[in-house]
Write a structure and sequence with these properties.
- Two copies of one chain form a homodimer.
- Chain A is mostly helical and 183 residues long.
- Helices cover 65% and strands 5% of the residues of chain A.
- Chain A contains eight helices and three strands; from the N terminus they run H-E-H-H-E-E-H-H-H-H-H.
- Chain A has a three-stranded antiparallel sheet with strand order 1-3-2.
- Chains A and B meet through helix 7 and helix 8 of A and helix 7 and helix 8 of B.
- The first copy, chain A, binds a DNA duplex (28 and 28 nucleotides) through helix 2 and helix 3.
Chain lengths: 183, 183
Amino acid sequence: MELAVLGLLKEKPMHGYELKKRLAEQLGAFGRFSYGSLYPTLKRLARNGAVEMDYAKGETPRRQNVYRITDAGDALFAQLLDESGPSVTEERNAFMVRLPFFRYMKPDTRMRLLEGRRGYVQLRLTKMATSMKKAKDKVDSYTEALERYAVDEAEHDIRWLDDMLEAERRNGNSGAPTPEGAR
Amino acid sequence: MELAVLGLLKEKPMHGYELKKRLAEQLGAFGRFSYGSLYPTLKRLARNGAVEMDYAKGETPRRQNVYRITDAGDALFAQLLDESGPSVTEERNAFMVRLPFFRYMKPDTRMRLLEGRRGYVQLRLTKMATSMKKAKDKVDSYTEALERYAVDEAEHDIRWLDDMLEAERRNGNSGAPTPEGAR
DNA sequence: TTCGTCATGTAATGGGTTACATGATTAC
DNA sequence: GTAATCATGTAACCCATTACATGACGAA
């Protein structure tokens, strides 16, 4: 959430309501963003100096409370992008929420995430194949539908990730040095 | 989490470790289940009398602490399945986690969920189409990839849900009465 | 004897969810 | 005038995440 808010504010200053709309529009498929978490997040970020409001301190206008990202906010955002650990590659939503901000990443962070996600999805696919062979015929139609869904999605994801990886290598010049034995 | 644990325990009594493995196997693609939430959940369920352990009270054996669902647990499970509100149709993972337990639902609860989810996905699809037309050409390739992913998924989901709905109507005899004008 | 995996938990921390509460402005 | 939507927040409650801590058992 913090990350998404900072990323959107990097584009341009906005007030909470607008932020909420942008979040719903762009990331609505990969997470829910309610006022109950948005405003506290904004408050927290303001407390830490990552964002600032444009109205004179002291007053609390009821309307259009615009937030602007600060240098500290920029730094925090960069750090959040860079620190992305296993939870980002293992949770689809966490991964997807970062996608619109890939352009702010260093090329090798991008590669790390894409490859990390691909590896994870591939691993899941293997595990699913194994466990489905074991439990074969013993599942009802709903579980079967779930399994089919999960397998289809994993295969689709891998194709999709491969496309992105290829595009990344084509123009991006990766960031990873040429592999050892490849000269 | 509670729901998933109860659902698995309905199949047969299990200890925590086994439960964790089953969760990872069947639902790993739609949520992460760690010991840090599993054991507290089990504890909570035990406190509320929804599950019971098989060892003599007082002792705490270090090994194979088997949990069994009680009648109260059955009731709680049924209630959780039936109460599924908007969050279940709006959050893919919440929906998917329920899928293996559809067979325990009343036919009309099943229909409600399937139709609810379909409606929600359809709505998202429409909204995405609108907002993409507005922001056309102004998005970078990563955002574009995200949008394509979201649209593809939504379309796939609708086909998948339609298949399930059709199957449901074919044999299930729905539970919904024949529509008014259809005689 | 050491590695993997079986097996069970706790503690702190933090953040999300739901529901509530309020009021201005715009369009019909 | 009234409904929709713009706009901002708070409070309580709960639960998930992460990291930590421990130890037995089986196989190599």
